[in-house]
Specification:
The chain is an alpha+beta fold and 115 residues long. It has helices spanning 29-34, 50-60, 78-84, 103-114; strands at 65-69, 87-93, 96-102. It folds into two domains: 1-47, no CATH class; 48-114, no CATH class. Helix 2 (50-60) crosses helix 4 (103-114). The chain is globular.
Amino acid sequence: MTTDATTADHPRTEEEQELSFRRISALNVCDICELSETLADAQRDFVADNGTSIAEATRAAGYAELFTSFGEGEDGPERFYTKLGFVRTGDFFDEEPEAVLDLDAFLAASRTAGA
């Protein structure tokens, strides 16, 4: 993945574009999802958000739910996860609350939002 910024005002030329395929991991998933923010408005109608693409691939692999845990606190990520549709399970992973995302509900909401 190339780290220099591309914006709608300054898109890369064809010679500057780099395409590479890399395995998505816990170490790079945030970077992958943030790539969707580099799309120009005109491109958004043609390309699925990377977060949605990851959820679709996970669902296609036979998983119905996605689990995570998060640190609590005033500046913690709970609002972020809640906005995406994660709900607390009542369980904990180490000392962090566990949350689950229903992939079918998430994908249905993504399709509705994109319509």
